[in-house]
Design goal:
Elements (H helix, E strand, L loop, with lengths): L14 H15 L32 H10 L3 H5 L5 E2 L10 E2 L30 H5 L4 H20 L31 H16 L14 E5 L6 E2 L2 E2 L4 E2 L3 H8 L1 H8 L5 E4 L3 E2 L2 E2 L4 H7 L4 E4 L3 H7 L7 H11 L8 H11 L5 H17 L23 H14 L1 E5 L13 E4 L23 H6 L4 E4 L12 H10 L2 E7 L20 H11 L4 E6 L7 H4 L4 E6 L7 H9 L16 H6 L19 H4 L17 E7 L3 E3 L15 E3 L3 H4 L4 E10 L5 E10 L10 E10 L4 E9 H4 L1 E3 L5 E4 L1 E7 L2 E8 L1
Parallel strand pairs: 3-7, 6-8, 7-10, 12-13, 12-14, 14-15, 15-16, 18-27
Antiparallel strand pairs: 1-2, 4-5, 8-9, 11-16, 17-20, 19-25, 20-23, 21-22, 21-26, 24-25, 26-27
Helix pairs in contact: 2-13, 5-6, 6-8, 10-11, 11-12, 14-19, 16-17
Length: 771
């Protein structure tokens, strides 16, 4: 789940949680246009006696207020605050609060905490995360988060939403078949980390600048090594991810570290799967020893899963106790509400451990202003329906899609000239879709603009669906080829939707579904003019056939582009926007998945058994398209302005590497505190084309071959806008110890001594690190 799904686990929701969710739907269906009161405690205007409680006194420190509240609760009341539908305590003026809301790429109706009504019929639906990540624009990540949190607060003020959002999903897109890869920022730890901290800051940071206050509370999920949902009968509820320490620290953990350290995220969600034989929600090393948000929440029914599905404990009371003792604070579901009291009576968990858990939960609510009385008197009290789906917010959704769209092939026909096209054929099962464009963990959008609508708004079009849906079991080849033979240009909009890749639905191959490839090939053969192939999907496909087909003049990947997808697609195709997106994940050939089981978590290749490794950092085989691929309508070139040839690290006189030959040094120590360990790389970027363009400048490194180091690793990226024939210098600050380290076999960060190769585009620069 983002949690898990609209009704807890999509395929197996317990009846109790279903009833909770359905109850909310029924409750709100009676009065869809009526303004409800937001849930908040300490309503001293209505009940002045509440002002006497310490937890309602805003002049006191939050930690004191939390302690005061916890001290006033009975054990049964405390247990009521361990679950997502937290019971109110009427005698203390505390209402029921629903923790579970989602905001993956806009305020969502997934989870019972948020609803749409006649008062707020929809919210801005941004592109699915994988496409936003393709923009490689950190300021965009944060700007989207800020809009989403504003709309969430506006909805909260009229009783339609909560304040705690279980987003973003920052798992690494390790395997191209994963159905939830669409929710993530891709396969690279640095990009995922930058997205994680940027989006979290956008959601959480307030306009008053007080770091102790939260606009809304974000949650980074699913902790950790979670990226198998349902593949050939292997389900996430039973999957044991076997992960070595090197891969854990090098690949899986960095986005979560960034969430906590750089983003100051309020919450982390533990996942369904086991890691090395332990359920993540019951592993004290993972929950208390490594990570810590303000509160830790379970994925929905994860505690139930570790007891019933994984049989990790003999009794439900043991499951409740082991999770709380490990550091779990909040249970999405009802399991802790049902079994914790018995666990206390059996001596399996102490009331002090429960106090600690609910204190973490209460502190988050304190930071949100939940215990500060009427929200209308607080910083965001003036927000309301007028602040949702504003023109500016909707334009940002369109701009995010424009920035993310990736041009993968262009033989020269793009951009199209609207004045020279008399007829445009638009064909394909995704050509006129609406809901497909917003992916999963979606909300009701402000409005839709489909690809067909976007294209038809520019030139005369004819349209044929070609297949009744993306499964494309039967293709109308005859109708499609007839249309293409009569049109000046043909645009095919193909790909996937949630029936192909989704939560609880991993793919088994990388081919276009059903008869899609046949339809594309036959249309290309029959077309009068150029053919453009638009792929709408979360994951990549093996479209080698189209890449090599001379009749297919252009290929674009548009992810799931959000409510304004059609506007963005048309803007790119007709040249109103110069594409600048880059792939945030590798597109593998079908042969890759035929020999690599999805369940193998190892990132590095293994020559002993032919295992090819994963992601651009370790995989050396053939690709259809590579991480970072993406074309522009103009031509950018790079030249090196400044970079050192040698960096020397100063070691203490007694350092072991002074007397013996070392391949690497620890990435911490006095040698890292020396200013000499940092340097700057300056690159001149020139737009040599005839139009303005936006360019992503990537700085990669290839470290020395030590400790199974990556073959290539992203150090940094910067976006730059240049007019035609314009140039500018882009600067990267590199810290040897922080940026050029590799993770060794036991999870320690090391600096490889010797030659490091820096890459920017076609430029390569050799750098020697020595002592």
């Amino acid at each position: 789940m983002g949690s898990s799904s609209p009704l807890t686990r999509r395929n197996r929701a317990p009846s109790s949680v279903l009833l909770i969710f359905l109850g909310f739907i029924l409750c709100f269906s009676h009065s869809s246009n009526a303004q409800s009161k937001p849930a908040f405690a300490c309503d001293v205007d209505t009940n002045p006696s509440l002002a006497a409680y310490g937890f309602c006194n805003t002049d006191l420190k939050m930690e004191y207020r939390v302690a005061d509240l916890v001290a006033r609760l009975t054990l049964q009341e405390k247990i009521g605050f361990l679950v997502n539908k937290a019971n109110g305590v009427t005698r203390l003026g505390i209402p029921t609060y629903e923790w579970w809301s989602e905001a993956l790429h806009g305020v969502s109706y997934v989870g019972p905490g948020t609803h749409f009504s006649g008062l707020v019929p929809g919210a801005t639906s941004f592109p699915q995360v994988i496409l936003t990540a393709a923009s490689f624009n950190v300021s965009l990540f944060q700007a989207i988060g800020k809009v989403v949190s504003t709309e969430a607060r506006a909805m909260y003020n009229v009783g339609l939403a909560g304040l705690t959002y279980w987003s973003p999903n920052v798992n690494i897109f390790r395997d191209p078949r994963w159905g939830r890869g669409q929710e993530t920022p891709g396969e690279d730890p640095l990009l995922s980390s930058k997205y994680a901290s940027g989006y979290v800051k956008g959601l959480q940071e307030t306009d008053c600048g007080d770091a102790n206050r939260l606009k809304v509370a974000a949650c980074c999920k699913h902790y950790t090594a979670y990226d198998v949902d349902n593949w050939k009968g292997v389900e996430r509820y039973n999957f044991n991810a076997v992960v070595n320490q090197q891969d854990m620290d090098d690949t899986y953990q960095p986005p979560f570290k960034s969430c906590v350290v750089d983003g100051n995220v309020a919450s982390v969600m533990c996942s369904y799967n086991q890691v090395n034989g332990k359920p993540t929600c019951a592993d004290p090393d993972l929950l208390a020893g490594v990570i810590r948000g303000e509160y830790i929440v379970s994925d929905c029914d994860s505690v139930d899963v570790l007891y019933k599905n994984q049989h990790y404990t003999k009794t439900p009371e043991e499951a409740a106790a082991i999770s709380i003792n490990a550091g779990l604070d909040l249970n999405c579901g009802s399991f802790l509400g049902q079994h914790t009291e018995a666990a206390v009576k059996a001596g399996l968990v102490s009331e002090a451990a429960i106090n600690k858990a609910i204190s973490n939960n209460f502190l988050t609510l304190m930071r949100l202003g939940f215990f500060d009385g009427d929200p209308k008197k607080q910083i965001y009290g003036g927000l309301g329906p007028k602040d949702v789906c504003t023109p500016a917010n909707q334009e940002l959704a369109a701009e995010a899609a424009r920035q993310g769209i990736v041009l993968l092939k262009n033989t020269g026909c793009l951009p199209l000239s609207p004045t020279s096209i008399k007829s445009l054929a638009v064909i394909g099962p995704n050509a006129n879709v609406t809901k497909t464009m917003i992916g999963n963990y979606e909300g009701t959008p402000c409005k839709y603009t489909t690809p067909l609508q976007g294209l038809a708004g520019t030139v005369p079009t004819t349209y044929l669906q070609g297949c009744s849906n993306v499964a494309c079991t039967v293709a109308d080849v005859a109708g499609a080829t007839k249309l293409a033979a009569e049109a000046d240009v043909t645009v095919l909009v193909m790909g996937a939707d949630q029936s192909i890749e989704a939560e609880s639905r991993d793919r088994v191959d990388l081919n276009l579904p059903g008869q899609q490839q046949e339809l594309v090939t036959q249309v290309a053969k029959a077309s009068k003019g150029p053919v453009l192939l638009v792929i709408m999907s979360g994951g990549g496909f093996d479209i080698t056939f189209a890449k090599n087909d001379a009749k297919i003049a252009g290929i674009l990947w548009v992810g799931y582009p959000g409510e304004a997808g059609g506007i963005a697609i048309a803007d790119v195709i007709f040249g109103r926007y110069n594409p600048s997106g880059r792939l945030p994940m590798t597109w593998y050939p079908q042969s890759y998945v035929e020999k690599v089981p999805m369940t193998n978590m190892n990132m590095r290749p293994d020559t002993s058994n032919g295992y090819p490794g994963r992601t651009y950092r370790f995989y050396t085989g053939e690709t259809v398209y590579a991480f970072g691929d993406g074309l522009s309508y103009t031509k950018f070139s790079h030249s090196l302005v400044k970079a050192p040839r040698v960096v020397s690290l100063r070691l203490g006189e007694n350092h072991v590497c002074r007397s013996s030959e070392c391949q690497s040094l620890d990435a911490v120590g006095p040698h890292c505190e020396n200013t000499v360990s940092g340097f700057e790389v300056q690159v001149k970027v020139r737009n040599g084309g005839d139009r303005e363009g936006i360019h992503t400048v990537f700085l990669f490194t290839t470290p020395p071959e030590v400790h199974g180091s990556p073959r290539k690793h992203l150090l940094g990226f910067e976006k730059i806008r240049l007019g035609k024939m314009e140039e500018a210098v882009v600067k990267f600050k590199v810290d040897v110890c922080k940026d050029l380290n590799v993770v060794d076999e036991i999870g320690k960060r090391k600096i490889g001594l010797g030659q490091h190769l820096l890459h920017v585009g076609d430029l390569k620069h050799s750098l020697s690190i020595r002592i």
